[in-house]
Amino acid sequence: MKTPPTTESILRKSLWSLLVLSLAIGIGVWVFWGDSVDELIAQMDPSKFAIALLLLSLGLPTVAMRWRSLLAPEEKRNSNPLFMTALLMVGHLLNTAVPGPVGEFVSSWVLHKRYKVDLGNALSALLVSRVLGLLSAFLIACVVFWLAPFDVAPEYIEKLWVVSLLLGVLGAGVSLVVLFPAQPRRILKYMRRFSIFHRGFFQRLFDMADRLLGSFLDTTKRGFWAYSSAFFWCVLGHSMVAMGIWYTVQALGYDVGWTAIFFTYSSSIIFSLVMFMFPGSTFGFDALFSGILHMTGGIPLAVAILVASVIRFHQSLIAVIGGAMMLFSSKELIEEAMVFGRSYVKVDDVDDVDN
After folding, report:
1. What stretches in the chain show pLDDT beneath 50?
2. 98 dihedral zone (left: phi>0; alpha: psi -120 to 50; beta)
3. Distance in angstroms (rounded) separating the CA atoms of residues 294 and 236
4. What is the pLDDT of residue 103?
């Protein structure tokens, strides 16, 4: 029987995944656009680049704050936003190497154990906060696209309309399921009666989905203020990250309108809702972001890829720091959380790097 991977091995594999991804992006950029990259780095404005990194970093705690906003009042008072930020860093680290949203399960479990937060509330609030982040990104993209247009080459207009339509349907569909879960839950109960779904595996998935939808229903009872607060943190976080990206482009010597940056980031973040379900899928986000930035900003593809690389390196570094913090401060809790995560998401197929 194959020995399940340890927490250390999974985190180590995640770190290696981030390192390989970062090196692949860096080497690819240098091989194909080496001279251009050298010139860009030589002309980089250090002060603007420092501001960019600061804004990108400040966007992280807002993700924890929108999660915290959707907890029950007593749970919210007892939870530490900085600790929750570190939990989200670990979640990002795990999601780079392990199939499925293991990071979300682990983050919710540790919060449940550390601050006595109901597990269903913790997981539901986190997932609902993700969807609110998606919904706010969709609204930002729509507002920018319609009310603050940016110059786009004629050959790209049709492509942007297609991207906007697909992402809009995705964002609206998922948002309706999470924000109005009663009907999907009724449909789920009806579907599980069919004989084809009577096998243990399917019933287990139905049980998990039913519990999540039940938690979504509980989260909707938090009221208008909780959702408004979470939405505020969503918009603030997206704005900080988008401005950080804008300063990155400015630091490289390119003058791109802020509306193009906001649309590019918002559109790309919507697609990440699907991609985070797959290990190593951050490359897909980087490719999408680079392509859209190239179209909307009118900048060379090499520069767009370099901007995406800066963001990826920054997130990788933050994830590593968060992972190290949690291993030193809450190793036993993470071990318990991984056992919990394995009961819902199959991670035993992840190769143990020690074997």
Report:
1. 1-2, 4, 346-355
2. beta
3. 25
4. 75
What pLDDT, on the 0 to 100 scale, is given for residue 331?
Answer: 63
Sign of CA dihedral 320, 323, 327, 329: positive
Distance of CA 207 to CAs 57, 184, 202, 219, Å? Answer: 37, 14, 9, 18
Indicate yes or no: pTM above 0.70.
yes
As a whole number of angstroms, the distance between CA 57 and CA 85 comes to 11
Tokens of 301: 């593809």
Residue 124 contacts by C-beta under 8 Å, 6 or more apart in sequence?
70, 212, 215, 216, 218, 219
Q: Which of 349, 272, 282 is nearest to 315 (CA)?
A: 282
DSSP for residue 276: T
DSSP-H helix ranges across 79-223: 81-95, 102-115, 119-147, 154-179, 182-191, 200-220
> DSSP states of 32-70 as a string?
HHHHHHHHHHHT--HHHHHHHHHHHHHHHHHHHHHHHHT
Coil, strand, or helix at residue 325? helix
pLDDT digits (tens, 9 = 90+) for 192-203: 777 777 777 777
Residue 279: half-sphere exposure toward Cβ, Cα within 13 Å: 19
pLDDT at 167: 67
Which single residue is written with the structure tokens 């915290």? 68
Determine the length of the chain.
Answer: 355
Instruction: Count Cβ atoms within 10 A of the Cβ of residue 135 and give its class: 0-12 exposed, 13-18 middle, 19 or more buried.
Output: buried
DSSP 264: H
Q: Name the token pair of 157.
A: 């207009």
Distance between CA atoms of residues 253 and 238, nearest Å? 23
